[in-house]
Specification:
The protein has 192 residues and is mainly beta. It has one helix at residues 22-47; strands at 3-4, 11-12, 53-58, 62-65, 74-78, 92-93, 98-109, 118-125, 129-137, 144-156, 161-167, 173-187. Strands 3, 4, 5, 7, 10 and 12 form a six-stranded antiparallel beta sheet that branches. Strands 6-11-8-9 form a four-stranded antiparallel beta sheet, with no helix packed on it. Strands 1-2 form a two-stranded antiparallel sheet.
Amino acid sequence: MPSTTPNFGLPYPSPSDEPCDFAEQWCDFTEAIDAVFATFQEAIDRTVPTIPIAAIRKTTASSVQNLVPIPFDTVLVDTADMTELDVDSFHINVTRRGRYTVVGFLEKLSAGTPLNGQITMLISGNTVGSVALAGGIERGGAFVYRFNAFLPVISLEVGEQVSLLFNTGASGSSTVNLASLSLAWHSDTEVP
């Protein structure tokens, strides 16, 4: 009867074994090694193939409606097919379930009204709702507001769409000079 290794349970012949068909024992041994390698490969495939990262940017100033996702025009990086600006220029689409860090940046001109009203930059998802990340007070005139913030850890599911928008507290539009939205995966589950 063959013995087995203590760490992976791989079969090997021991000196007390009766003479047998070496080819059969060798096949058993190689099949056991293949099974161990398959579990190693599964672990590697979960962590190594491609770490989902996407970053999109709006580089051209344009008028954007209040509380409407900002349209982006440039893909800075996309390692997991999370963006397709020709089809959807407003969102990063999650293609792998897990924990993510989300970063947003917004540079917009003053809307002018209402004075002293709150301006808020929001990162929004179709299942997690909107999260206010940065804000300021509307001062009117020729002010340029720059907001940047990040959501350090958020759980997202496959199919989630993440977008960037702002709320001035009034209807209408504002000129958005620049904007960017980034999403970086860092773990499969909430509990390591």
